[in-house]
Known about the structure:
This is Hydantoinase/oxoprolinase family protein. The chain is α+β, with helices and mostly antiparallel strands and 654 residues long. It has 16 helices and 35 strands. Strands 13, 14, 15, 20, 23, 24, 31, 34 and 35 form a 9-stranded mixed β-sheet that branches. Strands 3-2-1-4-11-12 form a 6-stranded mixed β-sheet. It has a 4-stranded parallel β-sheet with strand order 6-5-9-10, sandwiched between helices. Helix 9 packs across helix 14 (461-468) and helix 10 crosses helix 11 (376-390). The longest helix is centred in the N-terminal third of the chain and has 28 residues, at 189-216. The chain is globular. The mean pLDDT is 89.
Amino acid sequence: MTLIGIDTGGTFTDFVLWRAGEVRIHKVLSTPDAPERAIFQGIAELGLDPAGLRVVHGSTVATNAVLEGKGVRTLYVANRGFRDVLAIGRQARADLYDLQPPPRRPPVPRELCVEAGGRLAADGCWVEPLTASDLDHVRAEVERLAPEAVAINLLFSYLDDSAERALADALPDGLFVSRSSEVLPLIGEYERGIATWLNAWVGPIVARYLDRLEAGLPGARISVMQSSGEAVAADQIARHAARLLLSGPAGGLAGAAFVAASEGTARRLLSFDMGGTSTDVALIDGEPRLTTAGRIAGFPVALPMVDMHTIGAGGGSIAQVDAGGLLLVGPESAGAEPGPACYGRGGSNPTVTDANLVLGRLDPEGFLGGRMRLDVEAARSAVGHLAGGLGLGVEEAALGILRIANEHMARALRVISVQRGLDPRDFVLTSFGGAGGLHVCALAEALGMRHALVPVHAGVLSALGMLAAPAGRTLTRTWLGRLDAMTDAEIASALTSLIDAGRAELAEEGVSLDGMRVEPSLDLRYRGQSHTLNRPWSSVDAAIEDFHRAHAERYGHRLDLSVELVNLRVRVRGSAPLSRLPEVGPANSVASNRWLQVHGCEAPVPVLARESLSGDGCVGPAVVTDAVSTTWLAPGWLARRDGVGNLILELLPR
């Protein structure tokens, strides 16, 4: 079967084709109004017949719907007296010292919140049973309010989901229904409610998109990347749309871990994925870390997702002068249409990409392997207009744009390293995305790092990561109690039930159970705490000691308190479609026949094809190009190519 990984970004849609041991890559401009159009275009341009294709896709449909507030009309069903849980939230101020924060519109308008019985106590006993009149009332409200989706969130439903099931069964066929006991069967009615509402709010949009995608690719076997870094069949994920909120970025982290391991490169990576619209930064210690404390559009997302920090700084980020005369970069982006001014598609605002071109760090004739010519004069005009307002020269303004963009990204990298007690110098800075290589040297120096990695196929690494991600599930269940009062056998039995459920779901998808990896873990906390740390499971005694150690490492202290088990977690994964990268041939020793005049460099700078670099490498300054990305090798940096095509960068002693 032919494998193809597809990542839909804000500016480009990327394709990585794997067939007969060879990799082929491709890019097309995204079509945000209908993302599937770009996918169909790319597959047609690659000359592929959908029949027989195995597609793994990273989708931004759910993410964009949430960020833009364009979910469907959703009814929220809660227990009597709890219709306002989502509006009240945790009563935490976004800005600690803002004593009069502006009122925030509740996720669900109050008129779309319906109450019913079916209330449980914390011990699982019934406080108020669900009655026939409750079912009649909810059905009548659905008919009156005409929602497109319904989110059901009853108290403690993870202990007994019978009331939620009865409500769901009573609703009309064809209505998209999300139950909290299915979406997130965990403690915390607010977080569980938000996850259930998000799932219902964007679920029909995702389902329609996947239907269009499957209809346009008849005969293809389509999987979608989940936020946790595991792939799932498209026909199974439609009812779990909230699992796709970090679908594309998860592919990038999977790809970074995959290529770094291919040649035994250091496994501890500090990554930044710089695309056209945003930059995602993360830590990879062997494999991407997961979190259940993520947020999107200000809403908590307690579902497992890759642990990353996102900022609005990308190649398409627009530079402008604010009312006080200061230069700002982002978060507004030129996107795919019209894109940066240098794309020649009608854009007139100066962007980070335009600034790189003005400074000579991009080859206007070799962009995307020569498939797209950049308009230098349009870039200079756009940056020049900004420079006039600042009283600067064109090159000075372009340099200012890059310095501000770099500072935004350096600050984000510090958030996930320094602010967590980790020294960036213990990691290898790994850049990918179409624009990442242009900034990697500057960011490494800003963080005091001497080693960096620009992976092979860096410009489409998220699409490559789709093929390196295994099919899998992450299942959770609340199991509250003192850990030292439980036995190994009790916990193992409860974990086994989750493992069996995960195996069954994967078997239904057609995934072979041979070689399946199972990773059980526990969410633990000190009694009285509200937040947890996830630790691998082996035994009660080992888990307690491991938690004390991890707490001291994370927060700088350990407490003489009992350790409480909150949730059980199991990650079940099959084998990845792609297990290795092909080795590259010997370096092409042909000398550069192109030179660029780069601002700040006295002599012209050579433009080098990535495949021309040998194990001995070259010393910057140089512009290193390939089919999907460009790397600016700053003065004082050495670049060499490893056996699979990764660029290994090292800052030489000065």
